[in-house]
Structures are given as structure tokens and as C-alpha cells.
Amino acid sequence: QKAAVDSETEKAKNAIDNSTTADAIQSAGETGQTSVKDQYKPGMSLDDQKAAKKAEIDAIANDTKTAIDNDPTLTAEEKATQKAAVDSETEKAKNAIDNSTTADAIQSAGDKGRILVKNQYKPGTSLDDPKEAKKPINDSVTNDAKSVPNTNIENKSRKSKNNLGYSTLPSTGTNQTIWPNFWGMVLLTLSASLLFPYRKSKTVIQKNNSLEK
């Protein structure tokens, strides 16, 4: 507006200089005064400017939170954290606007607030990157699992075997019947060895009794 005032002032002076009569000078002066004054156009009231700037900040905040919600690379926790930061910066920007006392201060507070609100949205890592990052972990787990010794096999190999090839009684399979049969034969042999002398002595006694008769 001040540049326009300077321009109209220069025009009015030139018109006056080019006037050749008193009436022309008077007319050029009056026309110039009106043109110069008309360059002042009162701006929007400070309250209206503040309201407009705060509305802009709210709109930017909503757009930013929508972008955060629609980002598939962010976790729910990350989205909540970023949206909370958006709300915080929005509140700060609106307070700065309210505390401004000139149109320039209102404009500056609005511009800074808009940038700070937008900057709270930080896109997450590409979905392919976490997958690639987890592959070495999965490979490591697989290798660790493969390196775990089979304790059952090792324990069996460390056991000393008896004549039948078992350190303990087998619990299943064909060999399960060998042990009962084996021990049965042992018991039968022991019983026979104990009973045979008894039966023999009994027979001798009976024979002697018959001779005495």
C-alpha cells in the first residue's frame, strides 16, 4: 500500500506540474489527494486474522493426522505418539497466534506453526526393510536349533551295554520279551537245583523204609 501511495503521489505531482491554469492546478491537486488517500485499505481486524490463522493450523493438523493414520509402515504406538505431538504443536501455534499484537506477528506465528505441525509426521521404515532385518535373526535361530545336541542319542551312546546290548531293560519292542524269558529261565534253573536234592533225599528215605519193613 505504501508503494501505491508513492506511485499516486508522483502522478499527482506530475499532473500539477503539467497544469497551465489555476483551475487545472486545483483540479490536479484534488484528484491527486483522493488517489493517494485511496491507497490505504484497512486490513482485517487482528481478531479476525487470528481466527483465520488458527483455522488454518487446525486444518493442517487434521491433514497431518490423517496422513499418519493412513501410513501402513507405522505401528499403532508410533501413530499415537506422532498424533499426540501434532496436537501439542497445534496448541503451541495457536497460543503464539493469540499472543501476537500485529498482523506481521500473526502471520509469522501461523507460518512457523504450520511447519512444526507438519513435521510431526515421520513416515515409518519401508515394510520390506523390517522383513529383511528379521531374516538374519530367523537364520540365527535355525542354526542354533541345529547345533543343539540330541541328548537322547548321546546318552545312549555313553551307556555301557551288557551281553544282550542293553544297559537297562527295554521298554518296548521285541526285546521287551527277551528279559522276562531270560529271568524266568534263571529262576527255573535255581528252583530245579534246590528241589532236586530234596526230592532225591525223599526217595532214598522212602526206599530205606520199605527195606526195613
From TrEMBL:
It comes from the Bacteria. Pfam families: DUF1542. Residues 128-137 have a biased composition (Basic and acidic residues). Residues 1-52, 68-168 are annotated as: Disordered. Residues 16-37, 139-154 have a biased composition (Polar residues). Residues 50-113 form the DUF1542 domain. This is DUF1542 domain-containing protein. It comes from Enterococcus plantarum.
